[in-house]
Specification:
The protein is of the alpha+beta class and 189 residues long. The protein contains 7 helices and 4 strands; from the N terminus they run H-H-H-H-H-H-E-E-H-E-E. Strand 1 and strand 2 form a beta hairpin.
């Protein structure tokens, strides 16, 4: 998430941005850079960030006017990194013709979604169906849902070549027991 903040807050090298304004860009701060390094060290040792710390990051990002963009970028980046890190060889499923390739791709997408964000991705009738059974994040649940949706959509796109859209049909923030996404369209380019 913080890498997405950095990306959105990146100061162009064109000299047109006032140095006072540039200093106020959170993503350009040393604090963000230090936290990204800390998270990288944790991931190399297979340690995780606490749910409370994640909720704090979500709260911080939710206060931004561009939080939707930040969470979309963060979800997409996290999905690509998970697929590349864990399933590089299995991504070849998209190159295997026919139903075998599709089955391999669906299995990889399901596993990547579960590993990355604890989401259950199934394919009833060959169409993606997503359920997020993990704990709620209270007031920041809507922004967490943006991250989850972007991550799953990117996993589906990268691994299965899915080009449809997912509708967030149920949400914990609206009183549901879990968050659920279903296919709107599954047309390919």
């Amino acid at each position: 998430m913080l890498r997405a903040v950095q990306q959105v807050d990146k100061i162009p090298d064109d000299g047109l941005i006032d140095s006072d304004l540039a200093a106020k860009k959170f993503g350009a701060s040393k604090t963000v850079t230090d936290q990204i390094k800390r998270y990288a060290r944790l991931s190399k040792t297979d340690k995780s960030v606490s749910a409370e710390e994640i909720a704090g990051l979500l709260t911080l990002i939710s206060r931004r006017s561009d939080s939707d963009l930040v969470m979309k970028i963060a979800g997409q980046d996290a999905a690509r990194a998970e697929v590349d890190r864990t399933f590089r060889i299995l991504k070849l499923g998209t190159a295997i013709p026919g139903s075998l390739g599709l089955k391999v791709s669906m299995k990889v997408a399901s596993r990547a979604s579960r590993n990355l964000i604890g989401i259950d991705l199934t394919f009833p009738g060959g169409q993606p169906h997503v359920v997020s059974p993990n704990g709620a994040f209270g007031d920041v649940q809507p922004i967490k849902c943006l991250f989850d949706a972007a991550a799953v959509a990117e996993i589906l796109h990268v691994v299965t070549d899915f080009h449809g859209a997912l509708a967030h049909t149920e949400c914990r923030a609206r009183g549901a027991d879990s968050c659920v996404w279903s296919v709107i369209s599954s047309e390919k380019d």
